[in-house]
Amino acid sequence: MISVSERRDEEAGHIYLTIRPQHLREGVIKLSTMEVERILDQMGIERGRCLGSQTVCNKPNFPKVYEFVYEIPKPAKKVVKKLDKPAESVTLKKATRRRRTKRIAEE
């Protein structure tokens, strides 16, 4: 359906993907940005956030080569959690019930 070539620019932090749709003999295709990203996921191409995108089509008056620009994905950092205090033992006291009776005022 499409062929993809990849070029990386480490200094700028970009990945350039050149996408060439197959010839019109195979049939007309028109792919949105989301469909292109789904195909790239199926191909196993790792990339970051999309910086430049467009619709890919193989009709005669459309370009034959499309270039997509992505950021280089940054590795995920592991979060180390610190415990504030060690666990302390707690003793519970039995609550005592105090009930006061109402005194009726005698006249």
Q: What is this entry, summarized?
A:
By secondary structure, the protein is mostly beta strands. It contains one helix and six strands, in the order βββαβββ. It has a domain at 2-71.
Question: Can you walk me through this structure?
Answer:
This protein has one helix spanning 33-43; strands at residues 2-9, 14-21, 30-31, 50-52, 56-57, 66-71. With 107 residues, the protein is mostly beta strands. It has a domain at 2-71. It has a 4-stranded antiparallel beta sheet, with no helix packed on it. The N and C termini lie far apart (103 Å). The model has no long low-confidence stretch (mean pLDDT 81).
Percentage of residues in helical conformation: 10-25%
Report the biggest beta sheet as strand number plus sense, adding barrel if it closes: 4 strands, antiparallel
- Structural class by SSE content: mainly beta
Q: Bin the strand percentage.
A: 25-35%
Shape: elongated
Q: Report the mean per-residue pLDDT as an integer.
A: 81
Across the major sheet, the strand order is 1-2-6-4
Question: Which H/E pattern describes the elements?
Answer: EEEHEEE
Count of β-strands: 6
Number of distinct helices = 1
Uncertain parts: none
- Chain oligomer state: single chain
Q: State the distance separating the first and last CA atoms.
A: 103 Å
Q: Tell me the radius of gyration.
A: 33 Å
Topology:
Blueprint: E1 2-9, E2 14-21, E3 30-31, H1 33-43, E4 50-52, E5 56-57, E6 66-71
Antiparallel strand pairs: 1-2, 2-6, 3-5, 4-6
